[in-house]
Amino acid sequence: MSSHTVSGQAMVVLFSAGDHRAIAPALQHLAHAQSMGFESHPADAADPEQVFSRLSAEHQQAALVVFGGGQWQAGSALDTPPEAWDAAWRSQCLQGARVGQAAIQAMRPRGAGTLIFLGHTHSVTDAQPARHGPPQAFGAVHAAASAGLRSLAQSMARGFGPQGIHVAHLCIDSPLPLSTPAANSVSRACWSLHAQGRSAWSHEVDLHVLHAPELTHDH
């Protein structure tokens, strides 16, 4: 765990795995610019409930929680062994649910907070690049787990939005693991979602991250 906190602060809490861990420095910078504390934990934290219990005991409020779990794995559905499906489900869907439950439990008493799940366009478009590429262009196990995480985010958004908790799914179109420029863009997108007023919340945002070669061309 990495942290920078002061008693009584509003907190930004990140749970991330290797593919998304690069967003930590940028998200920490944005938090500190708003005089908010920041903590970073592994996405597979054994006890996410304990993280929020400790924050509560220290009179700190989890204002923004970001979860980015799982890891890209190439291979078609026929090339993927059963244990890989199970591991992907656990790292994204199950652990996302555990972090989401713990975060919402912490936010509900004050009726405010933002919970963002980092997903990927593979959750809805995995077949598109593979139609014109080799079999390894498929990421079937990652696509299935990402789709499950997306459904979880949608369900939580419907269930807890009326209670004042903003739940959103950020659908990232970028190679994994995230490069530093991509991670900076993702962090800014998370902050924009957190800053939205309740009268016009976004529950899903598609984020196409432009890379250097693309930025040199007019569209």
Structure overview:
The protein is of the alpha/beta class. The chain has a single domain (2-215), classed as Rossmann fold, CATH 3.40.50. Helix content is 43%, strand content 21%. The protein contains eight helices and seven strands; from the N terminus they run E-E-H-E-H-E-H-E-H-H-H-E-H-E-H. The protein has helices spanning 24-33, 48-57, 82-107, 122-125, 127-130, 140-160, 180-195, 212-215; strands at residues 2-4, 10-16, 37-42, 61-68, 113-120, 165-173, 204-208. It has a seven-stranded mixed sheet with strand order 1-3-2-4-5-6-7, sandwiched between helices. Helix 1 (24-33) crosses helix 7 (180-195), helix 2 (48-57) packs parallel to helix 3 (82-107) and helix 3 packs parallel to helix 6. The model is unreliable at 214-219 (pLDDT under 50).
DSSP strand tally: 7
How much of the sequence lies in strands comes to 15-25%
Can you list the strand order of the major beta sheet?
1-3-2-4-5-6-7
Helix content: 40-55%
Arithmetic mean of pLDDT: 88
* Span between termini: 42 Å
How big is the Rg? 17 Å
CATH-derived architecture = 3-Layer(aba) Sandwich
Provide the domain count: 1
Please report the number of helical segments.
8
Largest sheet: 7 strands, mixed
| Uncertain parts | 214-219
Q: What's the order of the H and E elements? A: EEHEHEHEHHHEHEH
Protein structure class: alpha/beta
Characterize the overall form. globular
From the 3D structure, determine the CATH topology: Rossmann fold
CATH class: Alpha Beta
